[in-house]
Amino acid sequence: MRQTYLSRLSLCAAAIGALAFAALAAPSRAAEDAVVIPPPAVDAPPSDGLQTAVLAGGCFWGVQGVYQHTAGVVNAVSGYAGGTKATADYQTVSSGSTGHAESVSVRYDPKKISYGKILQIFFSVVHDPTQLNRQGPDSGTQYRSAIFTTSDEQKKVAEAYIAQLDAAKVFRKPIVTKVGALQGFYPAEDYHQDYLTLHPNQPYIAFNDIPKVENLKKLFAATYLDKPTLVSSAKATN
Predict the structure, then answer these.
(1) CB contact set of 222 (below 8 Å; sequence gap of 6+)
(2) Beta bridge partners of 180
(3) Model confidence over 92-138: pLDDT tens digits?
(4) How many whole angstroms separate alpha carbon 204 and alpha carbon 210?
(5) Which of the residues 32, 106, 195, 226 could staple to 53 if both were Cys, CB 3.0 to 4.6 A apart?
(6) Strand extents, DSSP E, the chain
(7) Contact 161, 106 (CB under 8 A)
(8) Radius of gyration of the chain (CA)
(9) How far is it, in rounded angstroms, from Cα 57 to Cα 147?
(10) Is the dihedral of CA 132, 138, 140, 145 positive or negative?
(11) Can you list the domains of the chain with their CATH numbers?
(12) What sign does the CA torsion over 21, 122, 143, 153 have?
């Protein structure tokens, strides 16, 4: 069972005391260090219309938070990918037996940001792609590193980029990120959406996820948005 099951799920299911939560939530180390990496040598060309990238890199709170601060992203939704619709709920996915990974569907404008740039941020800032079935304090297959592709072109770019980074030995260990076709994406419960923005002082967020956004601002300043693009804002305009 994952280390943060009580600290994260109990907070969502019942309002436990702030001090008690802080004691439970404190992981052994902070967010993974960001890594300066080269852009992909192979990238998808600009195209008309919005595109979608679906990525899994540990707890979806931080992944969503990073892409909500990324220019060119129209919407970033936390959810589940890799399993069936019947098991796409937080408590069931947390068992680690559903095949799902906590994922984020990133809707973006390819004329403003490329798929390759989204992957560069993914490997550099969002998570540590060399950790197998875990990320930071969270462990289990639901926290695996994965890229769920929506086209042959995305598959080509993702696989070529992983090979490029491994060949350059950018990381101390080989990348374990799995690339596979998206079979379905199921949005997570409403209380998971915009979680980083709504709870910036929650110990788990402050310790593990806020540093990811700060690293985005530092390493990808030209791509950073100070005001996040929130799911709640997108719903309000529809």
Answers:
(1) 71
(2) 148
(3) 999 999 999 999 999 999 999 999 999 999 999 999 999 999 999 99
(4) 9
(5) 106
(6) 51-57, 73-81, 101-108, 134-135, 138-139, 145-149, 178-181, 185-187
(7) no
(8) 17
(9) 9
(10) negative
(11) 5-237 (3.30.1060.10)
(12) positive
Lowest-confidence region among 1-15, 146-160, 208-222: 1-15
Q: How confident is the model at residue 31 (pLDDT cuts 50, 70, 90)?
A: low
Predicted TM-score of the model (pTM)? 0.87
Catalytic residue among 11, 24, 56, 59: 59
Structure tokens, 62: 């931080």
* 233, two tokens: 């804002």
Both tokens of 27, joined, read 């992981």
- Specify the residue for token string 């969002």: 126
Q: How far apart are CA 65 and CA 54, in angstroms?
A: 14
The distance in angstroms from the start CA to the end CA of the chain is: 39
Per DSSP, the three-state class of 54 is strand
